[in-house]
Amino acid sequence: MCVRNLSTNSLSGAQADIRNTLAAIRDQHQVSIPWAIESGSRAWGFPSPDSDYDCRFVFVRPISNYVSLWPRRDVIEVPPDGDLDVNGWELGKAIKLLLKGNAVIIEWLRSPMIYCGDAQFQREFLAFFERFANRDFIGRHYLHLGERQRRAYFGDGMAVPLKKIFYVLRPAAVLRWLRFHPATAIPPMHLPTLMQECDPPRDVVDLTEELMARKAVSRELGTAPLAGPIAAFMDHEFDCAGTMIDKAATRLSDEARFEAEAFFRRTVARLDTQCSAAK
Known about the structure:
Beta Polymerase, domain 2, about 280 residues
């Protein structure tokens, strides 16, 4: 079953170009693409009029490639073309990074903008993650991401590029969401949904909505001092996460390794059979 949130009739020119690029990748590299989505500000819910299209995908090679003496690359990168940015990870790479706490693939699986998606692939991958996700690893990912972006863009807080606020605000909101939802480790990717579900202070919500509205109609927001409520929100969430997250290394369980291998083998075999039947 193929999930297509972006219908052919509603595609922009850039999105149609992405569909064509994905088809070319399948033909050129002889791979299956069970999941291809929009990432970046368009999927996060705070695009600008000139935001790039950031397509990310997971690909699976034919079974014969996995038993070759000469392993193929685990990434496929397409040279940037105008406002199109298209690249993807091989399934094994995505699984291993996920188990190390890299939450990028989970964002891909939860993107609200899907170019092409195999529903079974998404369902099984998310189910695997729910069983074996390490919440401390995921929290550590967003804490490091948020603190790194803050150091890169905020300086002394007196002349902050306003559009960069979102790149620190979103990790802070994810950390709050994880704290408020202890039974799961899969936060929403879409910032407005994330903010709604993590229930930040009202002044933070108002300031965020104002920034999103301005960003939606302006190519450049300029710089300004960082608003006090947003700065306090970020500091509070990063401090809480730094206190609560277990920073000790955790060994991957034998069960997780077994199930990861089973999911990988099952998916490769299923997609290989589908491709063979389609020839």
